Amino acid sequence: MKYLDEFRDPRLAKAIVREIHAVTTKPWVIMEICGGQTHSIMKNGIDQLLPAEIELVHGPGCPVCVTPLEQIDKAIAIASKPGVILTSFGDMLRVPGSEKDLFMVQSEGGDVRVVYSPLDAVRIARENPEKRVVFFAVGFETTAPNNAMAVWQAYRQGLKNFSLLVSHVLVPPAMEALLSSPANRVQGYLAAGHVCTVMGWKQYEPIAEKHGVPIVVTGFEPVDILEGILMVVKQLEKGQARVENQYSRVVKREGNRPAQELVNRVFEVADRKWRGIGTIPVSGLKLRPEFRDHDAEILFEESGREVEEPPECLSGLVLQGLKKPHECPAFGTTCTPRTPLGATMVSSEGACAAYFSYHRQAKIHDC
User: Fold this and answer.
1) Which domain holds residue 323?
2) What is the pLDDT of residues 295-354, one digit of tens each?
3) Is 250 within a domain?
4) Overall number of domains in the chain
5) N or C, which terminus of the chain has less Cβ within 10 Å?
6) Can you tell me the distance from the alpha carbon of 155 to that of 52, in angstroms, rounded to the nearest whole number?
7) Angle made by CA atoms 249, 253, 254, in degrees to the nearest 5
8) Residues 138 and 217 in one domain
């Protein structure tokens, strides 16, 4: 149980909390990028243990949450076509599109299936040669190698009935975009450890230097997150801005090079729209031209769709760290996990879902 109990040790956590209180002399705004970190913070009450001077804001590190509305509508349109099997991870089925979600398509007779790996979708395509099988490929750098492998396997096996609807996004350009915004409040970052497991942290170094913000690659257990916060605060208090690695038991500076090579073989960098934020240059991936026979947007002629976000949903401001979920008038009333207005209330990594699940309304200082 090493690397599990050790990083949930309450005695160690309390010692780190005391040190954070001791070193903090000024107000600081720190953003955790990853939705998994957000849920860990809420579940363990980490936000309530920190000094009043430290504010945690929640970033766009939930891939389901930042998938734009038109991509959901594309998936719904494709799934509604005869002869199609649309496969996806479970979270995506409940994300509302303009008029319905994929669960509703399923209830109307569409063949929509939950899978646990894109390679499951490749197997389904192999077993159903008369069907067109589409995998809804959503995610950050973490899931890109698996999706690249699925395309590579289908390509090598000649499975032309398998394709990806790609909605891959990249973390460093989003961090850069947030820091470049006139509305930016972020002074330090907790970077997503699982993303850096694949990509390393070299891409973060010019961001830290350019914007003068410390970036600490951080894990997901309570002690990980507290230690990451402490490392960021120490840099902020000293006027430093560099990349540090709290998650050293998993992450190396160079990342996983074979995984990177596979991703680069299948995908190329492209501009990508983020839900609630807009288009961020070179912030996504698309299939290379040689894999166009596996590109669902091309095969189903779905590339030109544009959709407006519902104005009552403030998830875009939440994803930029400009609002907390409970500051949205719809939170917990017209927007709940059963009746979500946006993806941040649907996803298992969404900030709104975390606030709702753990009954978080406002920060409490009682320690």
Assistant:
1) 315-357
2) 999 999 886 667 777 778 888 888 888 889 999 999 999 999 888 888 888 887 889 999
3) no
4) 3
5) N
6) 55
7) 115
8) no
Secondary structure percentages of the chain, helix, strand, coil, to 5:
45, 20, 35
- The pLDDT value recorded for residue 243 is 98
Task: Tell which residue, 301, 351, 294, has the closest CA to residue 328.
Answer: 351
CATH number, residue 14: 3.40.50.11750
In tens, the pLDDT along 357-366 reads 887 664 433 3
Same domain for 84 and 198, yes or no, is no
Same domain, 24 and 155: no
Express each pLDDT in 217-271 by its tens digit: 999 999 999 999 999 999 999 999 999 999 999 999 999 999 999 999 999 999 9
Does any domain span residue 189?
yes
Contact 211, 187 (CB under 8 A): no
Q: If you ran DSSP here, which 8-state letter would residue 308 be given?
A: P
Could you give the C-alpha distances from 278 to 35, 174, 198, 281, 309, in angstroms and in order?
19, 10, 26, 10, 11
Whether 145 and 281 map to the same domain: the answer is yes
Q: ∠ CA 359-365-366 to the nearest 5 degrees?
A: 100
Q: How far, in Å, CA of 163 to CA of 295, rounded?
A: 5
Alpha carbons 324 and 332: distance in angstroms, whole number: 13
Task: Using the Cα atoms of residue 72, residue 190, residue 270 and residue 310 in order, give the sign of their dihedral.
Answer: positive
Query: Does pTM top 0.85 for this prediction?
Result: yes
Same domain, 95 and 133: yes
